[in-house]
Write a structure and sequence with these properties.
Layout lengths: L3 H10 L4 E8 L2 E8 L7 E6 L7 H12 L3 H4 L2 E6 L4 H6 L20 H9 L7 E8 L6 E6 L6 H8 L16 E3 L2 E3 L9 H8 L3 E8 L4 H18 L1
Parallel strand pairs: 3-4, 3-5, 5-9, 6-8
Antiparallel strand pairs: 1-2, 2-4, 6-9, 7-8
Helix pairs in contact: 2-8, 6-8
Length: about 240
């Protein structure tokens, strides 16, 4: 079992502008952090991790983002960070929540509490970009899903920038995903709004990326890849 208390300790010791408990599930608080001034013209950026409890690199990447110096970025952006959407799954190393629900297939209803908590927390906010950190236990390298309403995709360029951290996935299994470029797939309309990213694209943002890293990589490498993808996107904005 992982220690969720260590996440809370890191959040409490980081230099954060606003730390808000947005809900509680099975006794575990879910927090959202806001970084950046509310004054002036700044783009809102959403960062999420841990929707699948057995994918800890997204949680780690989110925490490392909050712990590092983001001074230059805060002159241009305001960040909303939900480091761990599925605390129970994180602690017990399970993809699903305690009830066995895949939270990332639950955003079209109000039946799964964790999804409802996230939806309420961002209900009044529009984001210029959103990124959701994931892992894949079957992958041999990293890959991305990208959704962009104007179809002006930047995923292939982002992948090219970060591939020095580790190889791209070489899966050519012929699945139904629409390939944008090497290792970059389109967020499909057929997904509806069950998943977090399709939900965000429908209601809260015009641009979103799902960053996927192979579970076989060390945690340091996985979290570094996630942050490199985020930084590469922000440098292009």
């Amino acid at each position: 079992m992982r220690d969720y208390g260590k996440i809370l300790d890191r959040l409490n010791t980081a230099n954060l502008d606003f730390l808000t408990k947005i809900g509680t599930v099975q006794g575990y608080p879910i927090f959202m952090v806001q970084l950046g001034s509310e004054t002036g013209e700044r783009e809102n950026i959403l960062i999420t991790g841990g929707v699948h409890g057995d994918e800890p690199a997204g949680v780690e990447a989110s925490l490392r983002f909050l712990e590092r110096d983001n001074g230059a970025l805060l002159e241009r952006f305001r960040f909303w960070v939900i480091p761990c959407i599925n605390p129970y799954g994180y602690v017990h190393d399970t993809r699903e929540n305690r009830e066995g629900a895949d939270i990332n297939r639950s955003f079209e209803t109000e039946e799964v509490l964790e999804a409802s908590i996230v939806k309420r927390a961002i209900a009044q906010t529009q984001f210029s970009f959103a990124i959701d950190f994931h892992e894949d236990c079957d992958a041999t390298g990293f890959y991305l899903y990208e959704g962009k309403r104007d179809k002006q995709y930047i995923g292939p360029q982002i992948a090219a920038v970060v591939k020095n951290i580790g190889p791209m996935d070489d899966d050519d299994s012929g699945e139904s995903e629409v390939l944008i470029g090497d290792g970059v797939y389109e967020v499909a309309q057929e997904w509806g709004v069950q998943g977090l990213t399709p939900y965000l694209l429908r209601f809260h943002t015009e641009h979103a990326i799902i960053s996927e890293t192979p579970t076989t990589w060390p945690l340091e490498q996985r979290s570094a890849l996630h942050l490199a993808v985020l930084d590469a996107v922000l440098q292009r904005n």
